[in-house]
């Protein structure tokens, strides 16, 4: 039989143990909450010791400035928490909510498929998205009136489409990176129509322009202005064929007036200026030098024409007349782009119809109450 065990020793906790544990817990909590402050104080003491041997402003005052702003930040933080009765846990929950909202917003910005997007300026897009960008077919409504229906690439008009403005102006044709580019037709609210080539949003190349009074120009354009060869048929029956520069008759050309007169010669900034001949069925032709539309010479002479104290040879005048006729012939034989324009307009109308269908489907599949509101509208050029 095993001997009976003796009485066990009991170690009763003294009154010092709980006090020590509480002190250690308080010290650890203080270190956890004020660790950065203690490091900063240590840094201040170290810099103060170092500044005894150095007169550098940075080492003397920068730690003090950092300590001041750090203390101000913590003071304001405690004031805000106390004023709004927000606990530390509530503040962290608020931060998590903000992060969650930002994540959902970024996720919405990367949507793909059909969607309806509203912008804070009132613009609305209905159509296809790819990775949150307007891409495919869709309709964009301007808050101030007007719309675009057509193809998109990376949130820009690109491909074929139809753009309408609030004043009634309309463009049908090709786009590239948000601008009319290629072949297309533009008609403004006054009735002026241009059909032809476009580059970076401006008429550039070959085209035809019809004005509200019925006048028509067919020829070359550069940066939105008549430039090169072309012929202009005026409403009153007059016509000009020849060279243009910066939107005006400039160079050599032939002008037939409504009264039957015919001028063949040089032009400068829209006026007859230089050598030329003006003839009619009722009188002798006037030839020689012209300035601002007025003849500076008399009639033909046998050998020379006396003009303002100097003479002009017949050969020089005839050369100017021949150059004007050559320029007029070139103006009437410029390439026509009607077929390319018609094809571009037909493709633009088809793209607009496809965009309208995509927009209608987007409205049907999108819950309007769940639209994402964006800070900035799409940039239009």
From TrEMBL:
<feature type="transmembrane region" description="Helical">
    <location>
        <begin position="65"/>
        <end position="84"/>
    </location>
</feature>
<keyword id="KW-1133">Transmembrane helix</keyword>
<dbReference type="InterPro" id="IPR003409">
    <property type="entry name" value="MORN"/>
</dbReference>
<dbReference type="Pfam" id="PF02493">
    <property type="entry name" value="MORN"/>
</dbReference>
<keyword id="KW-0472">Membrane</keyword>
<keyword id="KW-0812">Transmembrane</keyword>
<feature type="transmembrane region" description="Helical">
    <location>
        <begin position="35"/>
        <end position="53"/>
    </location>
</feature>
<dbReference type="GO" id="GO:0016020">
    <property type="term" value="C:membrane"/>
</dbReference>
<keyword id="KW-0677">Repeat</keyword>
<protein>
    <submittedName>
        <fullName>Uncharacterized protein</fullName>
    </submittedName>
</protein>
